[in-house]
């Protein structure tokens, strides 16, 4: 069994990392006003779309549409550390953990101020959408992911990059 990760303050994440701001909306929450857990994954996917456009220089929608390359999660796990509440302003910070042959792994940190609320462990596979089969990570996407990973470097106070 893997040890539960300890919360990391937002300021310990790499300064060069991309950060996507989001606001927790009424529709994101359960009747108690706490983020309904699957909605963290919806926010994470939106942050990844923004990362593609704003930092990787790849049009996410064109990749899926015109190019026919899918980037679906094949693994998604979460560690919830503190509840996110309706009205919270949060920051989502995706860090590339690994780039493989036909997939890449992301640690996505979600913070309210300095406090880490959740950390998502995501693995995305690249697929040919028409045939629904695995394909290698396209060269432009691979180069962009590796460049971003290198620019970010390790998380402060951790032996390995996030």
Query: What is the assembly state of the chains in this entry?
Result: single chain
SS summary, helix count: 3
Average pLDDT for all residues: 94
Number of strands: 6
Biggest sheet, in brief? 6 strands, antiparallel
Beta-strand content bin: 25-35%
The CATH architecture classification is Roll
Protein name: Acyl-CoA thioester hydrolase
Organism: Muricoccus roseus
InterPro entries: HotDog_dom_sf (IPR029069)
Pfam family, one: 4HBT_2
Name its key features.
single chain, about 160 residues, alpha+beta, Thiol Ester Dehydrase, Chain A, six-stranded antiparallel beta sheet
Can you describe this structure?
Strand 3 and strand 4 (103-112) form a beta hairpin. 23% of the residues lie in helices and 33% in strands. The chain has one domain: Thiol Ester Dehydrase, Chain A (Roll), CATH 3.10.129. Strands 1, 2, 3, 4, 5 and 6 form a six-stranded antiparallel sheet that branches. It is of the alpha+beta class. The model has no long low-confidence stretch (mean pLDDT 94). The protein has helices spanning 38-56, 60-64, 139-152, and strands spanning 20-23, 69-80, 89-99, 103-112, 115-128, 133-134.
Annotate the secondary structure layout.
Blueprint lengths: L19 E4 L14 H19 L3 H5 L4 E12 L8 E11 L3 E10 L2 E14 L4 E2 L4 H14 L10
Antiparallel strand pairs: 1-3, 2-5, 3-4, 4-5, 5-6
Protein name: Acyl-CoA thioester hydrolase
GO molecular function: hydrolase activity
Keywords: Hydrolase
């Amino acid at each position: 069994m893997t040890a539960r990760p300890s919360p990391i303050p937002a300021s310990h994440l790499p300064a060069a990392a991309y950060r996507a701001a989001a606001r927790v909306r009424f529709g994101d929450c359960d009747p108690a006003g706490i983020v309904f857990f699957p909605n963290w994954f919806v926010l994470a996917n939106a942050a990844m779309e923004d990362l593609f456009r704003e930092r990787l220089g790849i049009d996410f929608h064109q990749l899926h549409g015109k190019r026919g390359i899918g980037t679906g999660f094949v693994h998604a796990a979460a560690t919830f550390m503190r509840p996110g509440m309706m009205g919270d302003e949060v920051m989502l910070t995706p860090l590339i953990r690994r780039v493989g042959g036909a997939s890449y792994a992301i640690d996505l940190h979600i913070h309210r101020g300095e406090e880490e609320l959740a950390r998502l462990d995501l693995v995305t596979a690249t697929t040919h959408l028409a045939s629904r089969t695995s394909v290698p990570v396209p060269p432009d996407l691979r180069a962009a992911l590796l460049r971003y990973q290198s620019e970010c470097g390790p998380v402060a106070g951790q032996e390995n990059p996030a």
